[in-house]
Amino acid sequence: MASFGQQYPIDTLFTINNTPFASQEFEYLYQENNQLPIREALNLYILFQIKLSEAKKLQIDTLPEIKHELQVNRDIALHSFLYPTIVSEEKIQEAFQRIQYFLKARHILVKINKRGNDTLAAYQEAQKIYQDLLNGKSFEKLAHKQSDDQSVNANNGELGYFTAFDMDYVFESSAYHLKIGEYSAPIKTQFGYHIIQILEKIPNPGKVKVRNILLEYKAKNEAVKKQKIDSLYTLLLNGEDFEEIAKKYSEDKRSAPSGGIIPWFGLFETHPKIEETVFQLKLGEIAAPVKTDFGYHIFQLIDKKDYSSLANCRDEIERLIASDSRSKLSPEELISKIKKDSHFKENRHLLSNFYSILDYAYADLVDPLFTIAGKEYTQEDFADYLSQQASKDIYENFIEYINRIYDNFSNNSILAFYKKQLLENNSELENLVLNYENRVLVLAITKLNVWLPAKHNKKGLMEFYQKQKNRYNTNVAFESIKQEVTSDYKMYLKEMWETKLWENYKVKISQSALNKIATQRND
Known about the structure:
By secondary structure, this protein is of the alpha+beta class. It has helices at residues 24-32, 38-57, 64-82, 89-98, 119-134, 139-146, 152-155, 169-176, 222-237, 242-249, 272-278, 310-322, 331-341, 357-362, 379-387, 398-425, 427-456, 458-467, 478-504, 511-522, and strands spanning 12-16, 19-22, 101-110, 158-162, 187-189, 192-203, 207-215, 261-266, 290-291, 296-305, 345-346, 368-372, 375-378, 507-509.
């Protein structure tokens, strides 16, 4: 690496084949993340850029599998900007009200994928079931006959008890709006269409944290274990330390080392007899021995939290919302927001040309169906989109079919418009996408030059082994050390390839720019 000239911009840190690279990105990475000596860190950074240059020179990004991976990564980057995490006060209040209660529900599920991914067919079937329920038909019989929930034969469609954050958010919202005994109209989740009925609603007592002493038993020694658990209980009542007794005598291997501590739990999360016992305890109180299927237990309540006050549970609720789908805009909400922000205007009446096949075939399709931020999407654009669709319903429900396809067309067009705007106007997103793409390209060319040859070049592997035999145990068969040899061969190929890259690319470093970064790091 030669000395650096003065013909480049003043913020240039190095050049590769006379292409300048600014200081900012390396400086940020080095200041924030790197614990290596600065010259070693810079060499790694330059090597990454050389590999990226080589990948672009070889047009790795034109390979079909790489193009697909680039698109996947672009979509991942876009998704975080399209659907940012929003923990609103409205959602906090909503969750707080819901978490006060457990609901017991049952449902009938109509899966879309079992009907050839035909959403309309699934919806119509669910709607028919809903009407049958309203007309007094037996829920159990309909569930057994028509529900796609595989557990229906065992539970008659019952889902047990749940509270906020236990179920899909759309399902939860529908359930909490129902009265006991009432049926929901079909609601759509990621699983399909559901008809829900609420069977019971009970207060949520909160969560508890307990210590536990467990003695397991079998029929032949149950009396001995019962006598032992009673004696331990007597010791605890006489003031012995619960934690020490648990460590010494408890046969619960998971909790004994911590003095018997069991993580927080609420109703319907463990054995009913355990919950019945511990939710009656006061802080510090020790319960008399309890027998369950697991053995004999002694419990001590060490902490309890309820949901009677938002102040007591706000942090927990905010954390749960942030990790849940309710903190994200739904696609419908996002499209509605884009429409509002981008002055969406629609001439839906112009769809009338498409309601008859003859009108559609011969109409002069030039008028705009809708505009967004001044960009027009015409009847001709929709006709092109429509010509690419296929549906078995096309002749049975033509007007409904056209409306449904139009909604898909307009929604897809609006999202595509917004994504394009984001990529063009958001530098943070642009950099994120670029970083994703660069990593994909470098990994791809590394795979091509290192991973695949190490895996598939058997002749090269054996030649490497023969030359490096003294590094291995020659008293064992090659197959028993093949993995170790392959790993070393991979490292050898990597070093050879990187050495060749350094030789083929001309690198110049600005020592003054590098010194400046090092000085700022030390400050």
